[in-house]
Amino acid sequence: MDISKDYDLFLDAIPGLMVIDKNGNVVYMNEQCADYIKVDREKIMGKYVTDVFPPSNMQNLLKGPNKFNTNFYFCDGRMSVSTQVQLRKDGEIVGVLEYDMIQDIDALDDLLTKYAGTLKDEMAYFREQVRNFKSTKYSINNILGSSQKIKDLKYQIELASTTNSTVLICGETGTGKELVAHSIHNLSARAFNSFVKVNAAGMAESLIESELFGYEEGAFTGAKKGGKKGKFQQADEGTLFIDEINQMPLSLQPKLLRALQEGEIAPVGSEEDVNVNVRVIVASNQDLRELVYKGEFREDLYYRLNVFPINVPALRERLEDIPELVEAKVRSLNGELGKNIQKIDPDVYRQLMDYDWPGNVRELYNRVEVAMNYAQGEILRPEHFNWRADNSSIDLEALQREQNPIEAIKKEAERKLINETLMRFDYNKSKAARYLKISRSLLYQKMKRLGIHL
Q1: Are 281 and 239 in contact (CB under 8 A)?
Q2: How far apart are the first and last CA of the chain?
Q3: What is the pLDDT of residues 121-132, one digit of tens each?
């Protein structure tokens, strides 16, 4: 049977097919469409489209440059998704044709399920690509602060990123040396290649060599079949960050020096050298010059590492950055801890800036998190900072500056007791006074004397 010219068969098979002329009047509707919207197609011919099907907006396509439109219809408890197409003849709009792509919820649900699956696969692919492109967690934007010290640090990072020279990052524990290494890599021409990290203090001396330079199959008992690439090979064309370089064993320092000077490594158990193109960044929380003087670090390796030195300032050297650091940490912790801190009492900053921060930014962030766990409501207050919650030893140097050290310790203990009691009773002073077995007026007097403000 030849159906090639059976146009009625073709037209009747299209769901929801309807055509209007340039005046918006219905000039064609197939039987399927008439049945779906429950009209007599013989009686509706020539009528305006919204008189036939009130939800329609086909007439809107009779004007303007848009040649196509997609519309959702919800009518009589049913829904459909329709495509509308301008009909043009000799360059003029003569009508609009509409047909349904979907005519029931189940079909729409099936389409959305398939699309969600496709989208999930695509997102997984792009996440992997981004992961491959950006192998670092941080960038220079993660270095917070507006002090001159931080401005100088960022300038050094930007300069270091333009070269391939070895960088030596020095600074106390908790200052953010790794963040600096990430930032240099992300700004460099190697940004889309690997960033590989190794901690010289995090492994047994017997494992560091194979971890850095890799090994051949059978190099030692327990060696992986086929051998293993070391960190240098993993970082080829990218950046290798060696943290706590001051802990590098003396026995391995000559091999590291050769890798830096010659661009060659010798995997454990191999008789052949392997060429690598790696930009090396190292970090130390000790003065390497002092270690050289003590004979604990090779002088030639020190000079090879100290090509582009960067010193990360301690927090006590940039106390003016504390408000910015605290505000950023509070915003981050609000989501993590389910808090809603919207304001920080100015006395908090005065308290924080009156401390020397031996643990630097890491310690500050820890203190802020501890305080937020105590906080209720929307304001972070000085009393939320429980300075001796970690049972740390007494700061004898600080007490030496006091006229009466014993009274100073008593005062601090009293302040801590009142603060913790107030927090326990959600700052209800009457309940706190009853718990402390003192009058409410005496509690007020003590709070004033101890500088406790609510």
Answers
A1: yes
A2: 92
A3: 776 655 555 544
Can you say whether the dihedral through the CA atoms of 384, 389, 395, 399 is positive or negative? positive
The predicted model scores a pTM of: 0.57
Pick from 189, 198, 195, 212: nearest CA to 137: 195
Helix axes 253-262, 205-213, angle to 10 degrees: 10
Rounded distance between C-alpha atoms, residue 210 and residue 309, angstroms = 28
Q: Helix or strand or coil: residue 237?
A: coil
Q: Please name which of 382, 307, 366 lies closest in space to residue 156, comparing C-alpha atoms.
A: 307
Enter the tokens of residue 19.
Answer: 């055509």
Q: Which residues of 70-107 are buried (b: 16+ CB within 10 A; e: fewer)?
A: ebebeeeeeebbbebbbbeeeeebebbbbbbebbeeee
Half-sphere exposure of 185 (CA within 13 A, CB side): 29
| Separation of alpha carbons 66 and 68, rounded Å | 6
Burial class (CB in 10 A: 0-12, 13-18, 19+), 323: middle
Give tens-digit pLDDT for 297-324. 999 999 999 999 999 999 999 999 999 9
- Amino acid present at 68: F
DSSP string across 70-83: EEEEEETTEEEEEE
Average pLDDT of every residue of the chain: 84
Q: Which tokens go with 426? A: 């959600």
